[in-house]
Amino acid sequence: MAQEDEIRYKEPEVIKEGVLVGSKALEKAPELEGVPTGIEGLDELFFTVKEVNGKLKQMPLGGIPKYSVFNLTGVNDTGKSLMVEQFAVEQARKGQKVAFITVETPANFVIASIKYRALAMGYDFSKFEDNIIMIDAASHTPLRENVPDLLATLAYAIKTYKINYTVIDSVTGLFENREMMARAIVRRVFNFMKKWYQTALFVSQKRSGHEELSAEAAGGYAVGHIVDGTMVLAKEMITSAYAARIYNANIGDLVRLFRIDGCRMSGHDTRTHFMEISETGIVKILESIGK
């Protein structure tokens, strides 16, 4: 045993490349700018602060912060996949390349859904369909089960197609049945996104037992603690007069709610908002419930 310990011991090493003064770190820092999401009502919820005539003034960012990694979490049927599909369509139609990693549904089914989403948004998908690069981790087990294979494949796609935007639906599927590894897996994927300067959206599933409006997702708080920000989606069936009064709804109505649960890279609206999913599957963020 003593011999094994001797073999495993490694003298601590100083990694000088990991030490930076503030000015050097700032040289590599990106400018803060917004990325429009294609989701009505969402882009107005992010802002920055600038000095104008000696006073600080809140300025609209016009979208999620560029190079941010966001987590969209909620139970099933709350609109998470619809939102990331709208985001992918919006970037693709503007000529941007988007990597869409599908972990749970084969790529041919997902791209059909994205095509329908584009139609509902009023766009001709054939004009920009090749701007979306599908990575099918649902059909290829090594991509779903082995994170190094997935990241190597994504790096290949980024270099080949000059991709700036990445969607993973869902990141929860990467640690399915091995939630003890959730934090390590999400950290690795998050670090990859930062290294490659991606603006990324991760979908993560919540269990029905989780509190509706918490940022908790499968794997505990692993995802929310690592990413730059979290968007929480929830739905509530109105079953009491009290709830009907609060939400200005009728008993039996289904009320959808949306909240930004933190954003490290910019200011954001902290209120809970009503959310709507149209009959064609288009998500809109509406007024706050306190308005």
Description:
By secondary structure, the protein is α/β, with parallel strands linked by helices. It has 9 helices and 14 strands. Strands 7-6-8-9-5-10-11-13-14 form a 9-stranded mixed beta sheet, sandwiched between helices. Strands 3-2-12 form a 3-stranded antiparallel beta sheet, with no helix packed on it. It has a two-stranded antiparallel ribbon with strand order 1-4. Strand 8, helix 7 and strand 9 form a beta-alpha-beta unit. Helix 3 crosses helix 4. The longest helix has 15 residues. It starts with a helix and ends with a strand.
Can you describe this structure in just a few lines?
The protein is of the alpha/beta class and 291 residues long.
